[in-house]
Amino acid sequence: MASRPRTLYEKIWDAHVVETRDDGTSLIFIDRHLVHEVTSPQAFEALRLAGRTVRRPDLTLAVPDHNLPTTPRVDAAGNRIPIADPQSAAQLEALETNAPSFGIRYIGATAAEQGIVHVVGPEQGFSLPGSTIVCGDSHTAAHGGVGALAFGIGTSEVEHVLATQTLLLKQSKTMEVRVNGELGPGVTSKDLILHIIGVIGTAGGTGHVIEYRGKVFERMSVESRLTVCNMSIEGGARAGLIAPDETTFAYFKGRPLSPTGEDWDKAVEWWRGLHTDDGAVFDKSVTIDAADVEPTVTWGTSPEDTSAIGGSVPDPMSFADPNKQEAARKSLSYMGLEPGQKLSDVEVQNVFIGSCTNSRIEDLRAAADVLRGRKIATNVKWAIVVPGSGLVKQHAEAEGLDKIFIDAGLEWREPGCSACLGMNPDKVPAGERCASTSNRNFVGRQGPGARTHLMSPAMAAAAAVTGKLTDVRELVK
Amino acid sequence: MDPVSSIEGRAIPYGAKNVDTDVIIPAAWLKTISRDGLAQGAFETVRAQPGNVIDDPEYQGAPILIAGDNFGCGSSREHAAWALLDMGVTAVIAPSFSDIFSGNAFKNGILTVELPQEQIDRLMEVAKTDPISVDLESQTVTTPFQDRFTFEVDPFRKDCLSKGLDEVGLTLERSDAISQYEKNQAQTMPWLAKGTEIAA
Ligand code: SF4
């Protein structure tokens, strides 16, 4: 086995095979399981009904994020403020009961460490390089940014992992997305991944695990890598990977659940071998020139509907595929846009800076850099910043970023998924537009009738300042 | 999971193509903590139209649903399968299914039957007046008339469905192999074996 050159994906896969069956499926060991309140109640209920236990509670971490309001969670006297929506409250309560009763470590709604599962995992040192990570949420792909094989699963699979710490899987095909050259000034990892999805399409990675390769990724911070891998699912891939390197090791050193002492040395030694061997073959390969990437926004209702900010709303007839023409027509009617309209003329009434794609400290710094000493435009009615975790929030406050946001007219909120999907009260009103740093611009994603434009934190901040989709490079020359 | 053998009864002649999971069960219903009760929200937007086939008293409690191409596309929510089960549907017949949906359906004991469009068209006709029968053992769909259509099913899935085996139960039988893996991992990759206990 060792003699054949292998891809990074194959190396992680091989290290986790418990056994392989005749039909080619394998039982794969899962090292880390993140659990949140939305997709777990039915799994715990099934365990209870069957009289089953959690095989490895120590490899499981539970954090609520989707339903939590982003308004204060404790009152002045330090008492918890109950969630008004009874169903959200019931989902939270179920997790609060299930985690301790199955022996799982639980980070509660008011803990400083609470946050979006995909922010918390790496931050706590729970999501380690070379590990297999699952969560009942499709954006689990994010953890690929630390060099872990991470993917979303359904509730029956959540139950399967809780009971057996394994999953029955077929090996995926491999896809290389190679980016040559360097990103221009003002162009971020979010612009890059939006551009990549625009190029490969939402089905481009179907059946594949993507490995992002090239100098651009090597130079990126771990946080930016998490942003890139997060949206692999929008490109149809179940998982995305970036090889761990010195930047990754430095990121993990000293985190609460990171290995220590002798374990640390052994881990790093193994991690150093986690890269695609020379001569390893990918099933599919796409090459992108970094010089082609501009600050990018979406104009439609699919993450592949991307354009450089300098561009215009496309004419649906300009697409070769009749299905795409039809989809674009529908998108434009939902989005209230006309073909040929300049993107930089499109006004926004809402700004959302947050979500597991862009709510880490680096994202907040990028947004604050644009907003420092500025005010949001008068046509922007609602602008919120939702840090990805309580620790990110503390960190930002220590740097004074909260003041910059508040002075500019944005709201500074408690951590959670928030307006990314509007399961909590944070929603974009019907017919209004939102400059959003999240990952999905689907119909109704941010609230019924809401119109979402995806972009980077710096671009969202620029939109807040001008009240329109704006090339951030014009503000920070 | 209850064993599946044959499913016989009225079939809802729904027929729509590209039915996504948002149509089967809208996002607002994801806030539940139970698998039950989702029938109420199933096909909510379809049922808002007067005279829709789902609410037609003729098909109340029908165990079979007939649909068009690409049934169950969209999000991975397993609630779509639970909603169908809660309606009493245990077999869906369509020309094709999304992968994730058919996996979720299988895990919940719902049979997904793929048949070519002409045969679907014929079943849509029959369903308006007569029952339909789906037999897993012989892999056939039959009507009270001369129709007899055969379908493919993955042997592993067929075995699980017909014996009512659940995947968790099957994997638990492999506990020894999993224990062996864990033992090796504790030796070779001790840092991975430690998890949340490290900061106890
Ligand atoms: S922030 Fe959005 S995409 Fe991320 S886990 Fe929450 S809901 Fe899902």
Automatic annotation (TrEMBL), chain A:
Residues 10-467 form the Aconitase/3-isopropylmalate dehydratase large subunit alpha/beta/alpha domain. [4Fe-4S] cluster binds at C356, C417, C420. The keyword Nucleotide-binding does not apply. Pfam families: Aconitase. Pathway: Amino-acid biosynthesis; L-leucine biosynthesis; L-leucine from 3-methyl-2-oxobutanoate: step 2/4. It catalyses: (2R,3S)-3-isopropylmalate = (2S)-2-isopropylmalate. Keywords: 4Fe-4S, Amino-acid biosynthesis, Branched-chain amino acid biosynthesis, Iron, Iron-sulfur, Leucine biosynthesis, Lyase, Metal-binding. Its cofactor is [4Fe-4S] cluster. Its EC number is 4.2.1.33. One of its GO terms (molecular function) is 3-isopropylmalate dehydratase activity. Binds 1 [4Fe-4S] cluster per subunit. GO terms for biological process: L-leucine biosynthetic process. Transmembrane segments: none annotated. Coiled coil: none annotated. InterPro entries: 3-IsopropMal_deHydase_lsu, Acnase/IPM_dHydase_lsu_aba_1/3, Acoase/IPM_deHydtase_lsu_aba, Aconitase_4Fe-4S_BS, Aconitase_4Fe-4S_dom, IPM_dehydratase_rel_enz, IPMI_cat. Residues 296-316 are annotated as: Disordered. SUPFAM superfamilies: Aconitase iron-sulfur domain. HAMAP family: LeuC_type1. Heterodimer of LeuC and LeuD. Catalyzes the isomerization between 2-isopropylmalate and 3-isopropylmalate, via the formation of 2-isopropylmaleate. This is 3-isopropylmalate dehydratase large subunit. The gene is leuC.
From TrEMBL, chain B:
Residues 4-118 form the Aconitase A/isopropylmalate dehydratase small subunit swivel domain. It catalyses: (2R,3S)-3-isopropylmalate = (2S)-2-isopropylmalate. SUPFAM superfamilies: LeuD/IlvD-like. It comes from the Bacteria. One of its GO terms (biological process) is L-leucine biosynthetic process. One of its GO terms (cellular component) is 3-isopropylmalate dehydratase complex. Transmembrane segments: none annotated. Keywords: Amino-acid biosynthesis, Branched-chain amino acid biosynthesis, Leucine biosynthesis, Lyase. It holds the Pfam family Aconitase_C. GO terms for molecular function: 3-isopropylmalate dehydratase activity. Pathway: Amino-acid biosynthesis; L-leucine biosynthesis; L-leucine from 3-methyl-2-oxobutanoate: step 2/4. Its EC number is 4.2.1.33. Catalyzes the isomerization between 2-isopropylmalate and 3-isopropylmalate, via the formation of 2-isopropylmaleate. HAMAP family: LeuD_type1 (MF_01031). Heterodimer of LeuC and LeuD. Belongs to the LeuD family. LeuD type 1 subfamily. This is 3-isopropylmalate dehydratase small subunit. It comes from Pontixanthobacter luteolus. The lineage of its organism: Bacteria, Pseudomonadati, Pseudomonadota, Alphaproteobacteria, Sphingomonadales.
